[in-house]
Design goal:
The two termini are about 55 Å apart. The longest helix is centred in the middle third of the chain and has 47 residues, at about 195-240. Helices cover about 40% and strands about 20% of the residues. By secondary structure, the chain is of the alpha/beta class. Helix 4 (about 115-130) runs parallel beside helix 5 (about 145-155).
Length: about 525
């Protein structure tokens, strides 16, 4: 494979619906190896990938690359091109990738019945198998359980071209990346190493900038005080030398003032003031030239209330279809108003299938249930933005405050017709909060969210008094928020196609209780 590179030269980009540019004069170089793309939701990470592979064109500057590029989007709505070709392929690379990622022949023709984690593994497998010189991947570990994530890392390590990786998975970035781009519109800074090394450097740079800014501010204020004092002295001296109010025949007083003017005191004072003004201009310019990181208030208090009903839902024992001759066996399930439940299991084990069935069993008014699905269809995302724009001013302001405190810029979200998946999740959560929910159900809530947003979401859900049902592979997230586990496992651990069964485990005293 040739030594392909991607070079951004003075690249500026702005969406038609935006009021300000997203990027201005970017200078970036991506060599062979993996480069991470890091930033808050909605900051332009996906846009940067699409500029790199030619799916978008800059308004100014150019992106230089003559290499073949493959782009893997966040969404997995449709099977990727060449999916059937990968399933048919018998070459060593195809067999190895299908084995590494556990991509099965039985997946052919049933894309829409695959779990999102299975779809993501297939999407990545096809992309790596095609052996492009440039591979751009957007959030590859979304939906993946721990086993699948390890399989993915193994597959990505084998890629030998220019790899561009958008991810909030800190371990993945540290494992694969030789450099990372940290985006803070309209700029992007390239730093060596993975997420951890780059973050340490960014924090050190921010501390230095804060100190330089504080020093420049103190110097400006000192010069302003000196200039103010000198102007006051000059005004007083001018008053003393002024002939206004003197009698025309008072020749002695007029002579003294003429003598003071002749000695040049007026000229010296004026010269010193002009020098101070020049120094003040330089001090102001120095202060303005120092870029400091602006911090916004994060974290939200999530409104909610506890239902007075005895139960939020009850589901009798049943079995749910998971595909050809596969079933999920479910015991009798009940959720109380104050329950905080984690639903866990491997990709394809039936978690989302069970959630869909449980939602139908909820014994609450629809407006009292906030449900955030694992993936939000594009039409629903666009409808949510339109709904937000049509809200009354006070309600829209409340929603925008929540979104802002989850780490996104509300104005940018409203200006786009297609917000990022992370922004959509925040928007749907905010819309649900308007109705004071008694039950919150979130399927893979940390997918697509940046690290500060995840931390804010954790804090918000910890304080919420309503019932909570979370589906996630993020063990740290679940450990902070839930007390009971509903675990889905294979009945026969030796078979990948065996039926699944659910058991209930009390987290405080880890034993099966149902």
């Amino acid at each position: 494979m040739s030594q392909a590179t991607v070079l951004f030269q003075n690249v500026s980009f702005m969406y038609d619906t935006a009021s300000v540019p997203l990027f201005v004069n970017l200078q970036l170089h991506f060599p062979v190896g993996w480069s991470g793309i890091i930033g808050a939701n909605g900051c332009g990470k996906t846009t940067l990938l699409q500029l790199a592979v030619g799916k978008l064109q800059p308004q100014q500057g150019q992106v230089q690359s003559l290499a073949e590029a493959v782009y893997c989007p966040q969404r997995t709505d449709e099977p990727p091109p060449f999916f059937d070709a990968l399933l048919d392929a018998t070459d060593g690379s195809a067999r190895r990738l299908k084995g590494q990622l556990e991509v099965a022949e039985s997946w052919r023709g049933r894309w829409h019945t695959l779990s999102h984690g299975e779809r993501k593994r297939a999407q990545i497998g096809v992309a790596v198998w095609r052996r492009p010189q440039i591979l751009a991947i957007d959030e590859p570990t979304n939906h993946l359980d721990a086993t699948a994530r390890d399989l993915l890392i193994t597959a990505l390590r084998s890629f030998q071209g220019v790899g561009l990786l958008v991810s909030h998975d800190r371990t993945l970035l540290d494992t694969l990346c030789q450099q990372c781009v940290f985006i803070d519109p309209p700029q992007a800074v390239l730093r060596p190493g993975g997420f951890s090394q780059g973050s340490r450097q960014a924090k050190a740079e921010a501390r230095r900038a804060d100190k330089q800014y504080a020093h420049a501010k103190r110097e400006r204020q000192r010069i302003e005080r000196e200039a103010h004092r000198r102007r006051a002295d000059a005004a007083q001296a001018h008053h003393k030398r002024s002939k206004r109010g003197l009698a025309k025949k008072d020749h002695d007083a007029r002579g003294q003032k003429n003598l003071a003017r002749a000695t040049g005191k007026d000229g010296v004072g004026g010269k010193l003031l002009r020098q101070l003004d020049a120094r003040l201009d330089r001090a102001r310019h120095t202060q303005a030239s120092i870029s400091v990181t602006k911090t916004s208030a994060l974290g939200i208090w999530m409104p909610g209330m506890q239902s007075k009903r005895a139960t939020l839902f009850s589901l009798p024992a049943c079995r749910l279809p998971l595909g050809p001759e596969r079933w999920l066996h479910v015991p009798s399930l009940t959720m109380r108003p104050d329950d905080r439940i984690a639903l866990t299991g491997a990709n394809g084990s039936g978690k989302s299938t069970l959630i869909a069935r449980l939602i139908k069993s909820v014994d609450l008014p629809p407006e009292r249930v906030t449900y955030i699905p694992q993936e939000i269809p594009r039409r629903q995302a666009e409808a949510s933005v339109s709904q937000t724009r049509s809200l009354a001013k006070d309600k829209r302001g409340q929603l925008m405050t929540i979104i802002s405190r989850l780490g996104s810029q509300p104005q940018r979200l409203l200006e786009t017709g297609q917000p990022s998946p992370g922004e959509v999740r925040k928007l749907l959560l905010a819309l649900g909060m308007v109705h004071t929910p008694q039950l919150i159900v979130m399927d893979e809530p940390t997918n697509h969210l940046d690290v500060p947003s995840i931390e804010c979401l954790e804090a918000a859900l910890q304080d919420c008094p309503c019932g909570l049902l979370l589906v996630s592979h993020d063990e740290y997230f679940l450990s902070r928020l839930t007390k009971t586990r509903w675990q889905i496992r294979r009945q026969d651990e030796q078979s990948s196609h065996a039926d699944m069964t659910l058991r209930i485990v009390d987290v405080d005293t880890p034993r099966a209780i149902g």
